[in-house]
Amino acid sequence: MRIAVTGRSGQIVSGLVERGGLAGHDVIAIGRPELDLMDPASIARALAIAAPDVVVSAAAYTAVDKAESEPDLAHAINGRGAGAVAEAARALGVPLVHISTDYVFDGTLDRPYLEADRTGPTGVYGASKLAGEQAVLVAHGDNSAILRVAWVYSPFGANFVKTMLRLAADRDEVSVVGDQVGNPTSALDIADGIMRVAINLVSSPDPALRGIFHMTASGEASWADFAEAVFATSAAQGGPHAKVRGVATAEYPTLARRPANSRLDCALIADAHGIILPDWHQSLKTAIARL
After folding, report:
1. Architecture of the domain delimited by 2-155+185-218+262-278
2. What pLDDT is stored for residue 74 in this prediction?
3. In 3D, which of 160, 182, 198 has the Cα closest to residue 258?
4. DSSP calls for 124-186
5. pTM (2 decimals)?
6. What tens digit of pLDDT does each residue of 117-143 get?
7. CA atoms of 55 and 272, how far apart (whole Å)
């Protein structure tokens, strides 16, 4: 299968290039200047040249706090840019897998979010990603799968796990928010899930395979829980570790308000696509071993 993925160096793009190659797929990562999400013509041209069997829309504006001061840019990339990728996939007559986020929710529910739950982003980033979902559904909704992922980490790029290991290298204690909960998810596992979804879309016109799906690792944690697991795993492998001091969100103010509850219910993708991602503890061990 020939997969064109937007972006060059993001965690999910890097994971897809690695895992796709191992699975025997031809994964083509396309980013700027050839493909610029601010330039619809470049998107159509680059994807046409790639001639894929399926398009994965992974490139995005991901600076959550900075987005608060750059709303127009965030919406141009995550909203209109996502729509342009969907339009290009439709023009090529191929399915689209679009990556979205838990930030489309406000985080106030006391249970994991279902796909049908009411959205309500609390910041610009989440609002821009929700706009992207809507643009994809309008442009190519009859042949797209939108995958909401959360708390992504990997051996690639900047992420929470790498930050914790860096901090532990020069301090004995690290303060980490303990009242936000979610599903830590490996980008490598996400890549495996994307490929399964892509194969299903290419293989079958079944409408049940299309639409919005939640796809995160099994198991949940607070950020403080996650940090403790990072340090315990690192220590067991002879790496840096530190004590974790759990703090309230109020003690760690950020420009953008994060959802207190980022947990996503993944029963729908298990039923439709047969996908259940591994428990995050298991995948964390693999990631830290590589780091």
Report:
1. 3-Layer(aba) Sandwich (3.40)
2. 98
3. 182
4. HHHHHHHHHHHHHHHHHGGGEEEEEE-SEE-SSSS-HHHHHHHHHTT-SEEEEE-S-EE--EE
5. 0.97
6. 999 999 999 999 999 999 999 999 999
7. 20
Is residue 233 within 8 A of residue 284, CB to CB? The reply is yes
Question: How is the chain split into domains, by residue range?
Answer: 2-155+185-218+262-278
> ∠ at Cα 147 (82, 181), nearest 5°?
115
Instruction: Please report, for the chain, how many H helices and E strands are present, in that order.
Output: 10, 14
- As a whole number of Å, the CA-based R_g of the chain is 18
pLDDT for residue 99: 98
* Distance in angstroms (rounded) separating the CA atoms of residues 9 and 181: 27
| 103 in catalytic set | no
Longest distance between any two alpha carbons in the chain, whole Å = 55
Do residues 199 and 145 touch, judged by C-beta distance below 8 A?
A: no
Residue 11 has pLDDT above 90, yes or no: yes
**Strand, coil or helix: 256:** coil
Q: Quick one: tokens of 200?
A: 């299903």
Cβ–Cβ under 8 Å, residues 267 and 115: no
Q: Choose, from 61, 113, 125, 153, the residue flagged as catalytic.
A: 125
Asked if residue 280 lies in contact with residue 218, where contact means CB atoms within 8 angstroms, the answer is yes
180 in Cβ contact with 103 (< 8 Å) = no
Phi/psi region, residue 104 (left: phi>0; alpha: psi -120 to 50; beta: rest), is: alpha
What is the rounded distance in angstroms from the CA atom of residue 248 to the CA atom of residue 153?
A: 22
Residue 55, helix vs strand vs coil: strand
As a whole number of Å, the end-to-end CA separation of the chain is 30
Whether the predicted pLDDT of 252 surpasses 90: no
Tokens representing 117?
Answer: 């739950």
Q: Which residues contact 202 (CB under 8 A, 6 or more apart)?
A: 1, 53, 54, 94, 95
